[in-house]
Amino acid sequence: MVKLIALYRRPDDPAAFDRHYAEVHTPLVRKMPGLQALTVVKLNDLPGMSTPYYLLAEMTFADQEALNQAMRSEAGRAAAKDLQQFAGGLVDMMVGEEFTAAR
């Protein structure tokens, strides 16, 4: 299982960001072929610690090839274009693979 992970820094206008993310960006992401799951988490500070991040999104795909195909698709290109327009300066993207940690 492969995850495309997006970490968003705090936007200047959280309400406008949330609205765009929910009404525009999420529907674009959900159209990506091969997407198995989308998990979105608003992040909070721990006591005594401040996080620069506001939101985390995980998009799950079966494997790297499924992710690659999704990113090359029309829906993937539309989601990427929207991301750059509304959050290009706020987002860090990475790919990760799930694994089971030894006990």
UniProtKB/TrEMBL annotation:
Domain EthD: 13-87
Top-level division of the source organism's lineage: Bacteria
Pfam families: EthD (PF07110)
Gene3D superfamilies, per database record: 3.30.70.100
Any GO molecular function: oxidoreductase activity
PANTHER family membership: BLR8190 PROTEIN
Organism taxonomic ancestry: Bacteria, Bacillati, Bacillota, Clostridia, Eubacteriales
Protein name: Ethyl tert-butyl ether degradation EthD
InterPro entries documented for this protein: Dimeric_a/b-barrel, EthD_dom
Native species: Sulfobacillus acidophilus (strain ATCC 700253 / DSM 10332 / NAL)
SUPFAM superfamilies in UniProt: Dimeric alpha+beta barrel (SSF54909)
